[in-house]
Backbone:
């Protein structure tokens, strides 16, 4: 019963929470640049407007691929908040990301194609840390099941600080924020036009936007999973940690210039190897010693 | 009726301007004027743009480009010519390669005069363009609705 409430809450609330987070993001970014900034509800105005514009599709397949991307991302979130296998959630998320790649590359526009190729490189950069995080959860709790992980005695971050650092690092790549916004550009006058979203207009762009909101809420949920334990108070702590993490992402976004993809790949793999990898070794040694 | 004027996305195209007006357009986005507080975004992608902001006159080489950009923008859309060059051809009017203002190739709705147009004037132009955008959008909605009725 509880599970159904959580799933329905995710389906209904995730776009609202995701949109609000983006609105706050834009407001804080503006304040960091000493501007007034748009209203917090701006992302919703944008999406409503996009739905009302004339639809010009470069290829008919694009809408279908984007809707599949949206549905798979919702399924990822449902599985996560429903409390099933965390490994499975990340597999479905990767499949969703592949559909985004196809939706962009079918347009055969040069900008969209370069953007989607870079998106693939971004996937290569963050995948190892994501998979290691799953392994970390398994070693710490002995299960891949999300609801059981959330019921552990003490917060998992106590066992998995290195995994947490690696996950927060790749979150910047996953959320396509500067310095790792190589596949798309949120700011004007960049060489890629809009990268992966160049050929998406009107409805299609709105669907992309809503999917991003679902995705962000899912990723923030994973951050929260590092914190929650059997004590209900930990949920409040998890929300606080999620908000701090999000603020950190905004800060990084506003204080760094984008890097080349080689550097992105090297940096993310290094961080993954050193923080998550070392954490993994220590965890295995300690457990061997305990047994 | 949804209020879509809160989210105007701009496409800025530089015709054959001297760059004076372009600098002023960019000045609108700086902290002093901050056009983003009206929801304005400078997209650079015609597929996602609502308002075409054009600076500089039309010459023989860019007339096709301007036409194509205009055609690529989804309806409803508004065109705003910034600076006398974009309005009439300005100081370059009699050059051998200049055809005239932006309205020689596409229909222009809002003319912002000035050489260079001041940021205040540009923002005023954008605000007027946004009002027009809202009106066009309502007309567009009515059109879509009528079409739906005819079909059923
Ligand atoms: S109107 Fe004046 S400042 Fe603007 S592009 Fe023309 S010559 Fe330059």
Residues:
């Amino acid at each position: 019963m509880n599970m159904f409430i959580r799933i329905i809450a995710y389906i209904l609330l995730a776009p609202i929470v995701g949109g609000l987070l983006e609105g706050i993001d834009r407001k804080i970014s503006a304040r960091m640049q000493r501007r007034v900034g748009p209203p917090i509800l701006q992302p919703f105005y944008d999406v409503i407007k996009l739905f009302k514009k004339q639809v010009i599709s470069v290829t008919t397949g694009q809408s279908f691929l984007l809707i599949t991307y949206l549905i798979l991302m919702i399924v990822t979130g449902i599985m996560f908040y429903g409390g099933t296998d965390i490994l499975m959630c990340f597999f479905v998320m990767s499949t969703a990301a592949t559909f985004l790649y196809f939706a962009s590359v079918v347009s055969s526009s040069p900008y969209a194609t370069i953007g989607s190729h870079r998106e693939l490189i971004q996937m290569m950069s963050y995948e190892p840390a994501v998979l290691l995080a799953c392994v970390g959860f398994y070693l710490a709790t002995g299960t891949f099941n999300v609801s059981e992980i959330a019921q552990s005695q003490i917060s998992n971050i106590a066992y998995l600080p290195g995994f947490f650092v690696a996950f927060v690092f790749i979150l910047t790549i996953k959320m396509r924020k500067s310095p790792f916004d190589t596949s798309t550009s949120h700011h004007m006058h960049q060489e890629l036009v809009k990268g992966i979203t160049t050929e998406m207009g009107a409805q299609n762009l709105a669907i992309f936007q809503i999917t991003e909101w679902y995705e962000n809420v899912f990723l923030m949920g994973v951050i929260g999973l590092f914190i929650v334990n059997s004590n209900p108070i930990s949920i409040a702590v998890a929300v606080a940690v999620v908000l701090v993490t999000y603020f950190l992402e905004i800060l990084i976004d506003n204080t760094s210039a984008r890097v080349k993809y080689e550097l992105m790949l090297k940096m993310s793999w290094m961080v993954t190897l050193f923080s998550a990898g070392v954490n993994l070794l220590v965890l295995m040694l300690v457990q061997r010693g305990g047994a | 009726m949804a209020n879509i004027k809160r989210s105007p996305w701009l496409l800025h195209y530089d015709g054959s301007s001297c760059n004076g007006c372009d600098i002023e357009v960019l000045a609108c986005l700086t902290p002093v004027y901050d056009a983003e507080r009206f929801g304005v975004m400078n997209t650079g992608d015609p597929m996602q743009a609502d308002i075409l902001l054009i600076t500089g006159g039309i010459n023989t080489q860019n007339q096709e480009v301007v036409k194509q950009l205009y055609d690529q923008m989804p309806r409803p859309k508004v065109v705003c010519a910034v600076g006398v060059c974009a309005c009439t051809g300005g100081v370059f009017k009699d050059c051998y390669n200049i055809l005239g203002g932006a309205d020689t190739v596409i229909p222009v709705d809002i003319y912002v005069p000035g050489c260079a147009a001041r940021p205040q004037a540009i923002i005023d132009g954008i605000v007027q363009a946004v009002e027009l955008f809202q009106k066009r959008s309502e007309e567009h909605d009515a059109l879509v609705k009528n079409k739906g009725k005819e079909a059923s």
